[in-house]
Amino acid sequence: MTIKVEFYFDLSSPWTCLAFHNIQPIIKETGAEIVWKPFLVGGVFNAVNQGVYAARENPDNRKFVHSFRVMEEWAALAGVTMNFPSEHHPVKSVYAMRVCCALESDQAALHRFATAAFNAYYTDQRNLDDPAVLAAIADEIGMDGKALIAKAGEQEIKDRLRANTEEAIARGAYGSPSIFVPDSDDQNSEHMYFGNDQLPLVKRAIKLHSQS
Fold first, then answer.
1. Structural domain boundaries of the chain?
2. What is the full DSSP assignment across the chain?
3. Of the candidates 74, 108, 94, 113, which has an alpha carbon nearest to the alpha carbon of residue 152?
4. What is the residue-level pLDDT of the chain in tens, covering all 212 positions?
5. Burial of residue 36, with CB atoms counted within 10 A of its CB: 0-12 exposed, 13-18 middle, 19 or more buried
6. Distance separating alpha carbons of residues 164 and 160, to the nearest angstrom
7. What pTM does this model have?
8. What superfamily does domain 4-211 belong to in CATH?
9. Neighbours of 175 (CB within 10 A)
């Protein structure tokens, strides 16, 4: 039976950009299925992790200063070009994540757009809070940007983003990415993993499930 891994993500998170790239070889190697789940990490922070905002207000926060340096090393290890932070950081990602939700039912299309959007923000330093930029990114990968932006503005899509965010919170999420793998011993349970650093544990969980 194919193991389903759920990857809740927000384009505004640099660690999510790294994890997005780094989880794909794991999925290919293990034969698992990945489901990309767009959500709004700001909504998660507001609900269960407001300390993030306080930490950002202190430019001398040792953890944040160190994490940026380590992030550069992770990017080099992954072969991901990251010109970060840019003038747009931290970016408001509501528009971008609504676009992702508009593509969620077509996982291949969502993957293509997310790949292009991550590159646009972290490599090219483009503003993902600008609908015109989002439309242009879609056009550049062969999608209809204007139509996609229009769809992203529909109430159904706004509701989906809200529902995905609330669902992630209910499952224990406190940031992006939040990754869920079924428990190898209990089909009604699951393990949650957070961030890029825990991907080896994701790989282990998938393999344990395959052996069960």
1. 4-211
2. -PPEEEEEE-TT-HHHHHHHHHHHHHHHHHT-EEEEEE--HHHHHHHH-THHHHHHT-TT-HHHHHHHHHHHHHHHHHT-----S-TTPSPP-HHHHHHHHHTTTSHHHHHHHHHHHHHHHHTS---TT-HHHHHHHHHHTTS-HHHHHHHHTSHHHHHHHHHHHHHHHHTT--SS-EEEEE-SS-TT-EEEEESSTTHHHHHHHHHHHHH-
3. 94
4. 789 999 999 999 999 999 999 999 999 999 999 999 999 999 999 999 777 766 667 767 787 778 888 999 999 999 999 998 899 988 999 999 999 999 999 999 999 999 999 999 999 999 999 999 999 999 999 999 999 999 999 999 999 999 999 999 999 999 999 999 998 777 678 999 999 999 999 999 999 988 86
5. buried
6. 6
7. 0.94
8. Glutaredoxin (3.40.30.10)
9. 19
Structure-block tokens of residue 168: 């992630």
- In the chain, the amino acid numbered 6 is E
C-alpha closest to that of 78 among 39, 118, 138, 33: 118
Please report, as a single letter, which amino acid is at residue 136: A
